[in-house]
Amino acid sequence: MYVVIFNNHIQLKSMSCAYGHCQPQPIPKAVNLFVKVTDCCNARCKFCSNGQSHSAISKFNHVKLWEVVDELRNKGIIINRINITGGEPSVASDTVNQILEKAASEPYHNIHLHLNTNGLLPASQEMMRLARWNSISMSLHHYDRSKLSEIYGVSLSDKALEFDNIDLQKVNASCNLVRGYIDNPAEVENMMKFAISLKLLRLGFVALMKVNDYCRERYVDFDEINFTYIPHLYFTESRNRGTDCKCSNYLYNHNGKILEVYMRNYANPNYCESSLLYDGQYLRQGFHDDNIIY
Ligand code: SF4
Prior knowledge:
Strand order of the largest sheet: 3-10-11-12-9-8-7-6-5-4-13-14
Number of domains: 1
Radius of gyration: 19 Å
Mean pLDDT: 89
CATH class: Alpha Beta
Helix content: 10-25%
Strand content: 25-35%
Bound molecules: iron/sulfur cluster
Distance between the termini: 19 Å
Order of helices and strands: EEEEHEHEHEHEHEHEEEEE
CATH superfamily: Aldolase class I
CATH topology: TIM Barrel
Low-confidence stretches: none
Oligomer: single chain
Shape: globular
């Protein structure tokens, strides 16, 4: 479905994903608005889609952000949530704090605010402690601190995995499948047990997007990991959107403690229905094309 905002067309999902024997159902007009507050990061992951470009966004136009929010609402489009993302948002804490301040005021106080963070560095954890976040996505690509330091390209402190004073109940962790790290059923099982030990409720396994040579060399296909043979991992449903993306959902039971688990595989990295990205200067649809909406 196409909708016009700021005199430009944006593409929205009109039907839900297909799953099992259920046919896709009509859904209301809605978007996820991603707000990229910086390209910079305090980590140096080799699979980063920012590549080597760790340049700061020089000036973040706050007025324009709230014009975008107003325009979407005025056009009857539901904002599922505003996702504050980067880079790593905590390296642009002034910008984030200014957004949070505005989001606490009328008529924005009821907007769902979501933080995307690497979650393991001191500044990242400080940001996770802020009460205004309705939900948080944190990357957690291994259960071993030294392996995590290798993956992040920075040394993590002894306390990184303690998550002091962080409400992990609102955190959804996501683990990239990377050859040499979490790349087989036994390691997937170790990750799930680790997530349960942290009292996380939800853990996702995500296939790398083939954005550079490292990702192509270290790519692990879901078919290589036979999830059906992992003990106490119970399949619940599979959803897919044609050839664009596929996800499978499971419940893992470890000594009576339950973890929601999902696997997500993007076959089409340019898939961007219902996703808008504001980078402090321009609003675009999706993450990869230069299609400026406003
Ligand atoms: S934490 Fe995220 S943004 Fe930072 S380098 Fe790693 S993948 Fe890139």
